[in-house]
Amino acid sequence: MKKSLLILLIILFQTGFIASAQKDNTATLNQLVIVANNPGPVISKDIYGHFSEHLGTCIYGGIWVGTDSRIPNTYGIRNDVLYALREIKVPNLRWPGGCFADTYHWKDGIGPQEKRASIVNTHWGGVTEDNSFGTHEFMKLTELLDCDAYINGNVGSGTVQEMAEWVEYLTSNSESPMTRLRKENGREEPWKVKYFAIGNENWGCGGNMTAEFYTNIMRQYSTYLNNYGDNRLYRVACGPYDFGFDWTETLMKDGNSRGRFQGLSIHYYSLVDGWNNKGSATVFGEREWFQIMRANLQMDPIIKGHKDIMDRYDPQKTKGLVVDEWGNWFDVEPGTNPGFLYQQNTIRDGLTAAIHLNIFNTHADRVKVANLAQIVNVLQSVILTKDDRMVLTPTYHVFRMFRVHQEARLLHSDLRCEDYAFGDRSIPALSASASVDNEGRVHISIANLNPNKQITVTCPVIGETYKRVTGEVLTAGEINAHNSFEKPEAVKPGNFSNFTYKNGILTINMPAKSVVVLELTK
User: Fold this and answer.
1) Same domain for 282 and 183
2) Taking a C-beta distance cutoff of 8 angstroms, is the pair 281, 336 a contact?
């Protein structure tokens, strides 16, 4: 009933406003109506999560340098990266994979460093690693970041016992062989582990399973993932890639299966022209820009499709949708190891981050966790490192700007905008979402996907009045502008004041290829 009234209110407001504007010959093509006095679901902070895999230099060199490194570090974790990640309020961190997770045997990464088994990373570059970064090091990282651990268990090549013992080692305070082993390795008290995934991409690198086979396996493994003490695992079942609705249907239709997990994962990467022609991260024209924007927007129908299935079997929304791999995937930088997936990060990637986070916000009723792939030096990362130097990417800046939405309540909004056209195709030119926090501050995040045109947006804010509006903007002169080790601040946010607020209506002049976040206070 409330939703119907809100929709009616928006329609009546728009009708009146449009009629008035038409009388005054005012352009009204781009309009974002926000209802400020009837907030919706809480936007989970965990949709702003990140992903750290044993892949390329994400862990080794990007996060972990060891205690003997000349690079300033805390317990072997480099300080510059640590401080930067604290600034964006990383809520949860997924580890150790990815495809690596289903070849990872956790006991190889515990105990004295000199006694740990070396392994070959068969998925990513065929390099040998010494397992110097393992369970204790990862949990120390989450403590230093003050974030939740999201651990991905090995279903593909592991065993039920191995996974069950890992959970016990991590979270149990009972007297047992696993807890004694943990204490022998220097950790007396158990850790808290919030999220635990039952495999990764088990339809592919995690075992090439059918949905039916995985569903049975998931039920078996989940049975032995125990809750110890007051630790409560949020078990994440492996879901499909993009529009793989049949996989979701298989997992959700069986009531016994639904009782074995709390979240269902999906993965989706944005590509220029498919997996065989991913394109360059920095050398591209407007066609490639448009293709990526178009691919980014596909996240919305993907989520809607999986939500529709989940809503049929779980109308109370007890199961969360976990988008634990997303982002742009381009060709690696020239001269780098193809298996390391190292790519630069431009203003285009910043727009990608804004589009996805706006979409996740608007689906806050079902999307509870999301993880950008990946956190450092891999794919669409927020940080790049080279020896003792560090660069913050445009994607990093968007996450920092959008952190205001974490744990705020979604505001009902209605966006109507012009199209951005290229050739014979077109997409909406704008992406937006809005929220209100516990102090009553409203935050509006808008992205202008058109790289060529400033767009003026009329934004009526219904139900409340505000005294002060401030803003921040991220934009650039060129579509491939990016931060390098030589020019680390070529793309960075600045204050934004190109707006007016009068009689409850914001008028925002959005620069081309920009992300704007506004704050309204009473």
Assistant:
1) yes
2) no
